[in-house]
Structure formats: structure tokens, C-alpha cells
Write a structure and sequence with these properties.
Layout lengths: L2 E6 L7 H12 L5 E7 L6 H9 L3 E4 L9 H15 L1 E8 L6 H9 L4 E6 L9 H4 L4
Parallel strand pairs: 1-2, 1-4, 2-3, 4-5
Helix pairs in contact: 3-4
Length: about 140
């Protein structure tokens, strides 16, 4: 049985996160998984689109949320598109700690069985007194 896996990015340029996404897409066992890449239609992502197409990945452009109040119309549309794909997995690829938050929220509301997010870029984040519960 082949199941759909939605990969989601919300970046605007091709970089390390997008290269990692391509490695993951290339390594997917196609006897079990059919990848779909949800992305914003950004010119800076052209290398990602071209390479994903060469890997036989279906691309699903979605508009970017322009303003927080437009989330009210954007979110139901994304939920509908996610449900149409009937994915078994929603995999958000984070290029920053708060990346993909709207997509992750939509995936949870769409009731996708497995919703995951991976940080593709790693960096030290300053943590405050409250994060540790004591000063360091």
C-alpha cells in the first residue's frame, strides 16, 4: 500500500533546509510512500522545484499568509487541500524555530494521523532565566 506524505516548507529561498528536503525526498522508499511538496510559489525556490520534479515529487503551491487576519481564510483552504491529499504523514521542515507554524496548525486541524516537524538548521538560541528555572 502506497501512502502519501506531505512535506511542507514555508521558506522563500533555496538553502540548507531545502537541500535537506531534497535528500529526504530522494531517499524515500517509493514502494511505500508518495511524496507531495507543499510550498509557497517563491522565485527563490526554483532550484528546489526543479530538483523535486526530477525526483517525481508532486508540487502543491500554496499562497503565503500575507497578514495575520488573512489566516482566517487561508487556514480553511489549506485544511481542505491537505484533506484532499489524504496523507498519512505531514512533515514540516523548519528553517527557524517558528517556521511552518501555520502549516502545522492546519495539519493538526486536518486530523492527519502523524504530524512531525524537524529543525533542519541548528543554532544556539539564547534561553532566558524562565526557560531554565535558574540562572546560568
Amino acid at each position: 500500500m502506497i501512502r502519501n506524505v506531505v512535506h511542507f516548507i514555508d521558506s522563500a529561498e533555496f538553502g540548507g533546509t531545502e537541500q535537506t528536503v531534497l535528500h529526504i525526498l530522494a531517499g524515500l522508499n517509493r514502494r511505500h510512500w508518495q511524496p507531495v511538496l507543499f510550498h509557497h510559489p517563491e522565485a527563490g525556490l526554483t532550484p528546489l522545484f526543479e530538483r523535486a520534479k526530477s525526483l517525481d515529487v508532486r508540487l502543491r503551491p500554496i499562497p503565503r499568509v500575507q497578514h495575520r487576519h488573512s489566516l482566517v481564510t487561508w487556514l480553511p483552504r489549506l485544511i481542505k487541500e491537505l484533506r484532499a491529499e489524504q496523507p498519512a504523514v505531514f512533515h514540516a521542515h523548519l528553517c527557524s524555530p517558528l517556521a511552518c507554524k501555520d502549516g502545522l496548525f492546519a495539519a493538526v486541524l486536518a486530523r492527519i494521523p502523524a504530524v512531525i516537524a524537524t529543525a533542519q538548521l541548528f543554532g544556539e538560541l539564547p534561553l532566558s532565566y524562565f526557560a531554565y528555572g535558574q540562572q546560568r
